[in-house]
Amino acid sequence: MNIGMGLPAAIPDAEAAAVGEWAASAERLGFWSVGVIDRLVYDSLDPLIALAAAAERTGRVELMTTVLNVPLRRNAVVLAKQLASLDRLSGGRLTLGLGLGGWPRDREASELPPGGMGALMDGMLSTMRQVWDGEVRGASGPMPALPPDRPGLLFGGFAPASFNRMAAAGDGWVAPSFGFEPLVDGIAAARAAWSGAGRSGRPRIVVARYFSLGERADEAADHYLAHYYGARYFDAVRADSLTTPRRLEAELRRLADAGCDDVVLLPCSDEPDQPVLLAGALDGLGARRGVSSTRRGHTGLDANSSSLELSGAAGA
Question: How many H-runs (helices) and E-runs (strands) does the chain carry?
Fold first, then answer.
């Protein structure tokens, strides 16, 4: 299973420059990817701006969104050009997890209708693909096409339409950041949709989990997750957050056994020691980690990229 690290782009009051520093640390420490999440009405950086900063400080790690809420960005041509620019800046390292967006205030601020999000998403995806394929022209000629299969596309969501969209147009499925039974059910649904669409192999399964390590790990996790998710979701997301090496090991084993191909570990704090503490905890599990290479088609990254094989036992 491939191990990525989230960037502190959605940590309130975080120093903006920390995003680039964390990305550079993630690459130096051998993580497979760096990831960002998306929230509009919140104290957070725009995920695409954050990944642009990460692209400038790195040369090998995969850049991921888990997920980017497409309908909030109403102009599909503008969004497609932004994403194409990011893919080109990073040398083809961009993999997009795409979703509809679930925060009501974000939808209100975007002046979206109460329904029809799936149809809006499909229409935007069609336009974006035309841009990436070089089919959108202006007075001076077409917008430049990206190489085939770029950027990589993953899809989130639990509705049947989401899995069908993934099977028709994507490389895999992005699971939520908490909840094990929904994850297992979602993997089964994703694989069924994939097979039903006549796709070979299996979809890539990406999941996120929150982590916080060190002396104040639990305090940091409690504070951040309560602030971000509120009382309605706090208990569920906190139950799956990882604050000790032993808990980290147990959850990574559980996710790997469930069939996940990637896990992106999202921070609860922007403290600069967190990447090093996470890498140290993974090393303590007997993990084999290396440095990732450039994305290669639908199968993800080169076989020599960073991955995780758990062989040891974690401390408490």
Answer: 10, 10
Which residues neighbour 286 within 8 Å (Cβ) at sequence distance 6 or greater? 309, 310, 311, 312, 313
Rounded Cα–Cα distance for residues 49 and 250 (Å)? 34
Query: 104: cis peptide before it, omega within 30°?
Result: no
Checking DSSP bridges between strand 262-267 and strand 2-6, what pairing results, if any? parallel
> Nearest-CA neighbor of 212 among 278, 159, 154, 161?
278
Residue 171 in tokens: 């490389």
CA pair distance 216, 239, nearest whole angstrom: 17
Domains, the chain: 2-299 (3.20.20.30)
Amino acid at 254: R
Judge whether 68 and 98 are in contact, CB under 8 Å.
yes
Question: What are the pLDDT digits (tens) for 84-130?
Answer: 999 999 999 999 999 999 899 999 999 998 889 999 999 999 999 99
**Structural contact between residues 39 and 50, judged by C-beta atoms closer than 8 angstroms:** no
Decide if 5 contacts 306 (C-beta within 8 A): no
Consecutive H or E run containing 7: none
User: What pairing do the DSSP bridges indicate for beta strands 204-211 and 262-267?
Assistant: parallel
Altogether, the residues listed in the chain come to a count of 316
State yes or no: pLDDT of 302 exceeds 50.
Answer: no
The confidence band for 293, taking pLDDT boundaries of 50, 70 and 90, is very low
* Model confidence, pTM: 0.92
